[in-house]
Structure formats: structure tokens, C-alpha cells
TrEMBL record:
The protein's required cofactors: Ca(2+)
Species name: Flavobacterium sediminis
Protein name according to UniProt: Phosphatidylcholine 1-acylhydrolase
Primary location: membrane
Listed Pfam families: PLA1
Length: 298
């Protein structure tokens, strides 16, 4: 049922968008003109601004109220050492926020065109309304990356492929037994743009982990991610889809709608369905809806 819903919603909301402000950390254009890949990753010479300049990376947002259809009150793993014995009374409503930054550390590799970046993303799920559990942070995910980006220009279907690259990625929740979760990946990047559309495909290879805390994580979360984004006037829509290549019933979909409120303040509605909204939820299926404000999109 949920699989059919995801396909229906994704097809119906084919406007998947991004307006990524790159000239400074939180700068936003007055008309929310979509930022091209060259501006996002400083691909062309006119857009290069040197090294060690802190910029937004993935979306930055705050959702004071995020509702879950099925809170993960007793996380488990296929590795029995990482399964929780007793359930906790988590609320179905919590606060969610994400911070994400990047900075270029090396410019001008391989024919003076490739760059190396450091990226960092942190996602938090806070049981701020849960007095019984002393308003604990249910889950914090940390994601540092070392990213190589190289510009390309291949025409395709009226648009162009603009980037190829790869990243060394670590993601974990920083917890001890039995709720510790982590994995390491090599993530590939292929970026395409066409008018106000930005699309990127990120297949990955999971690196071997001798003490595997989440053995079936690729089965549930997937082997790659597709980001599709579209900007229309002052409204932005973007989708993030993950999927395992050999398990049709798993994966996830996140749909986002960002709209103007006043000045640079923008509202944000987020819908998620599937597995792996956080590391602790990698094998837990839920549907969530969050409402808040957005500071920076893709």
C-alpha cells in the first residue's frame, strides 16, 4: 500500500525543486532564482571564490512539529547486540532540524578544474514535548564527508550534465550499545540541470564493517539516492528518493514544499514515507509529516 502511495505522490508532485543560495551562508535572492550547479559547486571560472569559505550544503531547516505514524520505541538490529530490550514511551510528535555546511579545501586539481570539499550535515530529532523522558534528543545523526567534484558539460534532452564526482562518507548517531548505528560509504555523484530543474543521482558502495551494527541497512535504505528539484516563481519543491536495487518494497521518499512567508522567511512542509529517516530507524517503516521554516534548500 505504502509503495503504491509513494509512486502516486511522486508522479503527482513531479515538481521537485531547489533554490540553493551559495553566495554566502544564508543569503537568499529576493525572487528565489534557482541556483545552478556551477554556483553551488563553483564549477566555472566565473563562479570560483577560493578555498575555506563556509557555505550551506544540504537543506537547513527547523520543523518545530513533526508527526510520526509509528514512533520507533524499541529499535532492533539484525545483529542481536544492537537490539533494545525494553520499549520507551516516545511521543509521536517531536521537533526535527537539520544543519549542513561545506567548504572547499583544495581548488584546481586535474587540468585545474577539479575541487575537493569538506561537508558536514547534522540531523536532530528532539522529544521536546516529552516530559516523561526529560525532553531527550531521541536521535542525532552526524555525517562528515570528503567530496571531489569535477565539471562536465554534456547535452541531454534539452539540458546538460554538469558534475561528476565522488565522496567518502561516514554517518553515525554517536551512541553506545545497543543503539549505536553507523556506516561508511563511497558515494558517486552525477548532476543534471534543465531550466529550473536540478537532478542528481548518487549511487553508493557500502564499505565493509567488521563490527556491523546494522547489517541489512542497504536492504532497507537502499543502494543510492535520487534528488529532483524544481523552482516555480517564489515556490520551491524537491524530492529525495532512496531505493535498494533488489528489494522493491523498501527504500524511502521525502517530499518538500518551501514557500515564502515574509521577506526572507520561508515556510517548509515535509512528507516522508519509508525506511531510514534516521540511522536508528534504518529498518523501521513510518510515515511522517513536519511543518516549519527553511533557511537554505538544495
Amino acid at each position: 500500500m505504502f509503495q503504491k502511495q509513494r509512486i502516486f505522490i511522486f508522479s503527482g508532485l513531479f515538481f521537485c525543486s531547489i533554490a540553493f543560495s551559495q553566495h554566502s551562508l544564508f543569503s537568499l535572492s529576493d525572487d528565489y532564482i534557482v541556483k545552478k550547479y556551477s554556483q553551488r559547486w563553483e564549477l566555472d571560472s566565473i563562479d570560483k571564490h577560493g578555498t575555506f569559505r563556509l557555505m550551506s550544503y544540504k537543506p537547513i531547516y527547523l520543523a518545530p512539529a513533526r508527526w510520526s505514524s509509528k514512533p520507533n520505541d524499541q529499535p532492533y538490529s539484525e545483529n542481536p547486540d544492537y537490539s533494545v530490550d525494553e520499549a520507551k514511551p516516545y511521543n509521536s510528535i517531536e521537533t526535527k532540524f537539520q544543519l549542513s555546511f561545506k567548504t572547499k579545501v583544495i581548488q584546481g586539481l586535474f587540468n585545474n578544474e577539479g575541487d575537493i570539499w569538506l561537508g558536514y550535515t547534522q540531523k536532530a530529532h528532539w522529544q521536546v514535548f516529552n516530559v516523561k523522558l526529560s525532553r531527550v534528543f531521541r536521535e542525532l545523526n552526524y555525517e562528515p564527508e570528503l567530496i571531489f567534484m569535477y565539471p562536465v558539460s554534456f547535452s541531454f534532452l534539452g539540458g546538460k550534465f554538469r558534475t561528476i564526482g565522488l565522496a567518502l562518507n561516514h554517518q553515525s548517531n554517536g551512541k553506545d550499545l545497543p543503539t549505536s548505528r553507523s556506516w561508511n560509504r563511497i558515494i558517486f555523484n552525477l548532476g543534471y540541470e534543465n531550466g529550473n530543474w536540478l537532478v542528481s543521482f548518487h549511487p553508493w558502495i557500502r564499505l565493509k564493517d567488521d563490527e556491523d551494527e546494522n547489517p541489512s541497512i542497504t536492504k532497507y535504505i537502499g543502494n543510492g539516492e535520487l534528488n529532483a528539484a524544481y523552482t516555480y516563481n517564489r515556490h520551491q519543491f524537491y524530492a529525495i528518493v532512496t531505493h535498494p536495487f533488489n528489494h522493491l518494497k523498501c527504500g524511502s521518499m521525502q517530499l518538500n514544499y518551501v514557500f515564502p512567508l515574509k521577506g526572507h522567511l520561508r515556510g517548509h512542509v515535509q512528507f516522508f514515507d519509508g525506511y531510514g529517516e534516521t540511522m536508528i530507524d534504518y529498518n523501521h517503516h513510518q510515515t511522517t509529516v513536519g511543518i516549519g521554516i527553511s533557511f537554505s534548500d538544495w
